[in-house]
Amino acid sequence: LGQTFQVTSQEATKLSLAFSRPPLPSAEDCRKLSEDVQNAILAVATVYYWLPKGQGTTLRKMVRDATTEVVEGMIQLTDTILNASEESLSQEQLISTGGVWEACEQVSNLPRGEYNQAAVVSALAACLGVVKDAVEEMEHALVEGQDPYGDIMEDEELGFRGNRDTYWSEADRQLLSSCMGLMKASKACLKKVLAAVKTHGKADSPEQIAQLDDLADIANEISPSVDELALSMYPPVNPLAVRLNASLKNLLHFCRASHVCPPSEEGWVQFLTGAVDHNMTKVKNFTQGQL
């Protein structure tokens, strides 16, 4: 795959240089350039399709995304050259050429070694990053006395934005405390699962590969749910949205049932299960009157 990406990068350079200054390539030269570009792209796609599905869906998705980015980059470069109105190198052509180079360099970031295990580690780390950002944003917004809409100027037509719904009530803040507990539990769960996959994750059998993929799939559901939960916490607080977006039990269940969770790891799984239950109970109590 690395070789095909390198060849594609070289063909992008040749194509771009050929149309960087007059005279333009002859019809025969254009045919040869087109064939070389097409062969490079076909080689990239062929190597992707050679990747056995049994190596894991997480790995396959990462390779597919990298391959797609290279193909789309070459399409954009070709379109830029075809639609160019000048017979000289344009800024748009430079940017498109650089885009192909950058896409081809992404092969160096693809997993190595235990491929699907490394792919799942990468996926979990990305999810953890999203959740960390959401937690930090809400912690900042919840600073005592802070107006969550303080950066919104007064509207010229509507006048002063003195609507109570733009502020958190005391009851809101009590609910938000429990929601923050769930968000922090999400962060702790992903951090612990990531560490467990790094330490115990294996891709030696179809069952182990499938378990790793399950963990990655569930984690991919958690990070957008945490984002939605954070959005639902802004005034006016929507208790129903809070309840619908507040579950981590699936990840903990799958982790406990997988090979990445030997007996030495069961302690934190049990602890975090209790933390999720505790915060969910508090959220339900605060929102009971809303249902």
How does this structure look, described?
By secondary structure, this protein is an all-alpha fold. The longest helix has 31 residues, at 170-200. Helix 3 packs antiparallel against helix 4 and helix 3 (57-82) packs across helix 5. The chain has 2 domains: 1-109, Up-down Bundle (A middle domain of Talin 1); 116-147 and 163-288, I/LWEQ domain (Up-down Bundle). The chain is 70% helix and 0% strand. It contains 10 helices and no strands. 32% of the residues are buried. It has helices at residues 2-18, 27-50, 57-82, 91-105, 115-141, 170-200, 206-232, 239-244, 249-257, 266-287. Residues 154-247 form the Cyclin-D1-binding protein 1-like C-terminal domain. Belongs to the CCNDBP1 family. Keywords: Cell cycle, Cytoplasm, Nucleus. It is found in: Cytoplasm; Nucleus. This is CCDB1 protein.
Describe this protein with a few key phrases.
single chain; 291 residues; 10 helices; 0% strand; mainly alpha; I/LWEQ domain; A middle domain of Talin 1
